[in-house]
Amino acid sequence: RTTMKSLRFISAEAFVSNAEFARKSLSAVAHDLFPLLFKASYLLEQGEVIHDLVENWPLFDFNMGKLLGATLDYQEDLSHRTCSVCLESCLTGLRDYVLNQSSPYMKRLKVVDLTGIKDVEVQFCKCKKTMGRWSRTLLLSKLCSELLVYLQQAQCNPGTFEISINVLIDLFVTERNYELVVQALLKKCSCPLKICCVAFRSDNLTLQKFFYIIKLTDPSLLRKLEIVHNVHLEMEHLEMLFNSIHFPLLMSLTLPARTFNVRRFTAADEQMLTNIGEKMGEMTQLTELSMSFSILTGRIQKLISPLKTPLKMLDVSNCSLNHADMAFLANSFHANHLEALDLSGHDITELYPSTFFKLLSHCSSVLRSLTLEDCNIQDTHVNMLILGLSPCQKLEEFKFIGNPLSSQALKHLFTFLCELPMLKNVEFPVPRDCYPIGITYPIDDASLCRFDHQKYERVAEELNLILLQANREDVKASTPLFGSYDAAVQETNNELGAYLIKSFKETLEKFTTSFNKMS
């Protein structure tokens, strides 16, 4: 699919395609052409030109999302291209903007917004090398520290110290880049480039380090907080976090697995849960909440009833919800506003079919994403599911991996899915008849890949043919066996893998020591 380009954009491409000529001629370029030239350079991956454009940026703000998004001159959105060449040139250009004393342009730049960059699975850039959120965090922190060292050592124009640019960024911190980010945040006051953290994700970090760095980020500006995987945050730590830090602008909160476990609750724990709910109620902007893999049986109401703003996104996958939890969700004021819902890991058709479908009907007018993985949805439930999904005319994404459905049932379901006008992405299970007879669900990791691959390919082709015949080539259908693509996990999987091996080794050593003592 080719996107139309205006004559202005075609001229801009021609201008930047000769990097040497473009760099020499920048001083004669009108201010209002810089955004046009930036997008053209980004499309052609002209790193040197990008660097010089940013180094001499003549405008008050530099917003990556707007600059790379759809424009009148070129409709294609390039904000999902996390091209390493382009982004590195951008950030080093920003550093040199501060240092360049001979630029013909007045230094007006006040705000740089890097939050519009989207990390996606498939990259279209020629270099095929991406710079994800973790690497952007590392590079910006590094450049801020280098800039300070240089300013302290070199004879700079006094005007350089008056430059103050807020750099809005989504930080991603792990053990491996922690020290550099801390240094950059500690010296924020003296650095012309001031890191302003809008979203913060932490993984593979000790609690002590997490608590220290979160205070440095200026939590009053934070809109999104993700504490994931290898940050061992439990309920008492969460209460401590909410008691010591206020998050007035927080819109999205993701908590790690096992933050809550009501099976071992005491009276004090019940009070703690109430306190956490009340603190969340004070976050008047909070509309997205993810608490997967916690055990929350019978406590959903206590936790989210204090919220004053309706939730638009709720992930309570594998949280052992009971009928009372589902009834609360179905009847709560959140139900009419839910745009994304994940109830994976719950046997919805057996435990609470009527309340689940009541919840689905309440959110049907706004629901965009529904995830029902490992929910024991069988062939006999398909007609009921179709009935429940029929009003969801805004549904863009439906994920139902791990359900024991036959090829026939999937074809029936796909025929219906073609009728949902906004649908773009479907993640469907390997059909039950592709696995050996007697397979039990949920399927364990060891058996997950032991299916008839040729038969699966034939069924997948038939399902895609159903889409094709209904003129729905716009729908992507896939079976990601080990879960959907996660850019953050993908980028740091080496570090996380090493951490898991280290944890396993330590556990094994403790076990061996205990065993030897017993012997």
TrEMBL record:
The keyword rRNA-binding does not apply. It comes from the Eukaryota. Gene3D superfamilies: Ribonuclease Inhibitor. One of its GO terms (cellular component) is cytoplasm. Keywords: Leucine-rich repeat, Repeat. InterPro entries: LRR_dom_sf, LRRC14/PRAME. Belongs to the PRAME family. LRRC14 subfamily. This is Leucine-rich repeat-containing protein 14B. It comes from Cinclus mexicanus.
